[in-house]
Structure formats: C-alpha cells, structure tokens
Amino acid sequence: MEPDQAAEAEHPREPKLLIAVAIILISNFAWRVLVPAHDYPLRTEQVLTMAFDLMLIVALIGLRLRVAKFTALYWSALVCGVGLFVIRLKGDASWWTGHLIYSLT
Question: Which of 15, 34, 37, 78 has its CA 20 to 30 A from that of 9?
C-alpha cells in the first residue's frame, strides 16, 4: 500500500478518536463537578490526573486540526478540559482533589 493510500485508510478513525477524547473530557468534567471528593489523593495521583487532562486537551486540539467537522462537540470538550484546570483554582481542597466540592463522610 502506498503512503497516500495508507493515510486515506486511517482517516475514518480520526472522527471516532475525536469523539472518544471529547466524551472523556466532558464526562470527566461532569464527574468532578457533580460528585464530591471525600479524601485527598497522593501527590503522584494529583500530578498524573493533571498530566492526563493536559494530554487529552492537546490530543483534542491535534485531532481538530485533522478533522474539520464536529465543531460543537469540539468546543464543548475544550471548555470542559479547560474547566478541569479552573476547578483546581477554587481552593486548597479543589487543588488536591480536582473536584468542585469536598466533604468528609
């Protein structure tokens, strides 16, 4: 298979990947807004979740450059991805947990 044909054969997977990344970002944002956190994670977990969120945002932007449609889904996922980091600016508990609400059970 020639390189041009290989690139065309992979093209149909890109919209599905964009949708998957967008769904992960949107559902992760909804989870962190609606469900309160009950304990502080370890520093390693905090850094890894922030890195994972950042990688998803970068992947979303990279996929958007290759797929021209799904603009509403793209923008809502991008807003949710940035919102994941905005939540952490609310306070000390939000910084550590990544959730909007923190409560002890």
Answer: 78
105 in a domain, yes or no?
no
pTM, two decimal places: 0.82
Residue 67 maps to a domain:
yes
pLDDT tens for the chain, residues 1 to 105: 565 555 555 556 678 888 899 999 999 999 999 999 999 999 999 999 999 999 999 999 988 777 666 788 889 999 999 999 999 999 999 999 999 999 987
Helices (H), 11-105: 13-34, 43-66, 71-87, 92-97
CB 2 within 8 A of CB 69: no
Tokens of 19: 């949708």
Q: At what angle do helices 13-34 and 43-66 cross, to 10 degrees?
A: 140
